[in-house]
Amino acid sequence: MKILGIETSCDETAAAVVKDGIEICSSVVASQVKLHHRFGGVVPELASRKHIEAIAPVVDQALDEAGARPADIDAVAVTQGPGLVGALLVGFCFARAWAYARNIPWVGVNHLEGHLNSLFFCRPAPKFPFAALLASGGHTSIYLVHSHTRSECLGQTRDDAAGEAFDKVAKMLDLGYPGGAVISDLAGKGNPEKYRFPRAYLDREAFDFSFSGIKSAVKRHLETHGDWREHLADIAAGFEAAVVDVMADKLILAAKTHGCGHAAIVGGVAANACLRRKTADLAADNGIKLFVPDLALCGDNAAMIAAAGCHLLGAQSFCGRLDDDVYSRVRFIG
Ligand code: ATP
Ligand code: MG
Ligand code: FE
């Protein structure tokens, strides 16, 4: 079964062709980063307009690269939410019309379930049930993943998402937008012990996060250290270590608490080398096997949406209806 996946929830126009939910035939991601860079964040109206320009060529490119004709596609999976409504609508309406015109099924996918399904391109893939940290630009949560289509949220951030904290701290340090990759490159050259920023564990035994305090701590540091520009790498390393320590500890605790031998990290922040390394070390110390997607599958992409869609269509014979609509905030997961 070949599925065409489409993703337009934020500032990436993406399309992919995936076979049987596990084999990526093509995955095209057209990023709008340059467009939004000078505004220091995503401008929703500009994002929607750019998606309209990009969607048809990106889908054509995904079909071309997969060596597939439209008639070879058995179903379409598209991100339905959460995300920017205007941006979501572009991919959603395109996908629905594309499927309707060809009389094939289509399915709306929760973007977060999409991120979780990026793990099933790992060889081997994690075994259910496993604990997963989803750390991205808009969300930071820990899930107990029971199946491809059912996940239980064990805890989530009470304020900022981890990726949002990286982006906001990058802005404070005049490093531009988006900031995750820039901070992590810089942090690699710094000493994480030089400045110790607070770790917000909240309840040690629970799985909620808070990242607004560390952001304020960095702000205070800059206000009280006039020479901070000379210590950028150390500040970046100190900040990164504080965020990573809490996420790694809570993920491994979740796996242990729920008796899971497998744990995983997904979402844009899963590309962070320090998070990957520290969590892998901690997992190994605790006899847990850690799974992380390839770097190209951490950020937003349509292959993960196609994989999630494949399981929704298969397991629940679920199919979208013409009057279905997009949603901006998390409605449900699992
Ligand atoms: P959501 O998935 O919650 O709807 P999103 O789709 O915008 O949000 P993603 O594309 O999954 O988010 O991830 C983008 C985020 O990942 C940004 O905040 C970015 O700064 C962060 N990020 C990317 N690379 C890294 C890195 N190497 N280290 C830390 N953060 C990173
Ligand atoms: Mg993005
Ligand atoms: Fe995302």
Automatic annotation (TrEMBL):
SUPFAM superfamilies registered for this protein in UniProt: Actin-like ATPase domain (SSF53067)
Xref: InterPro entries: ATPase_NBD, Gcp-like_dom, KAE1/TsaD, TsaD
One Gene Ontology MF term: tRNA N(6)-L-threonylcarbamoyladenine synthase activity
Presence of the UniProt keyword Acyltransferase in the record: yes
Cofactors (names): Fe(2+)
Domain of life: Bacteria
Principal EC category: transferase
Annotated Pfam families: TsaD
Amino acids binding Fe cation: 111, 115, 300
Binding residues for substrate: 134-138, 167, 180, 272
Residue ranges constituting the Gcp-like domain according to the UniProt record: 23-306
Its EC number(s): 2.3.1.234
A single GO BP: tRNA threonylcarbamoyladenosine modification
Keyword Iron in record: yes
UniProt cofactor note: Binds 1 Fe(2+) ion per subunit.
UniProt catalytic activity: L-threonylcarbamoyladenylate + adenosine(37) in tRNA = N(6)-L-threonylcarbamoyladenosine(37) in tRNA + AMP + H(+)
UniProt keyword annotations, A-Z: Acyltransferase, Cytoplasm, Iron, Metal-binding, Transferase, tRNA processing
Subcellular localization(s) per the UniProt record: Cytoplasm
Entry GO CC: cytoplasm
Biological role stated in the UniProt entry: Required for the formation of a threonylcarbamoyl group on adenosine at position 37 (t(6)A37) in tRNAs that read codons beginning with adenine. Is involved in the transfer of the threonylcarbamoyl moiety of threonylcarbamoyl-AMP (TC-AMP) to the N6 group of A37, together with TsaE and TsaB. TsaD likely plays a direct catalytic role in this reaction.
Record-stated family: Belongs to the KAE1 / TsaD family.
Record's protein name: tRNA N6-adenosine threonylcarbamoyltransferase
Organism: Desulfosalsimonas propionicica
Highest classification ranks of the organism: Bacteria, Pseudomonadati, Thermodesulfobacteriota, Desulfobacteria, Desulfobacterales
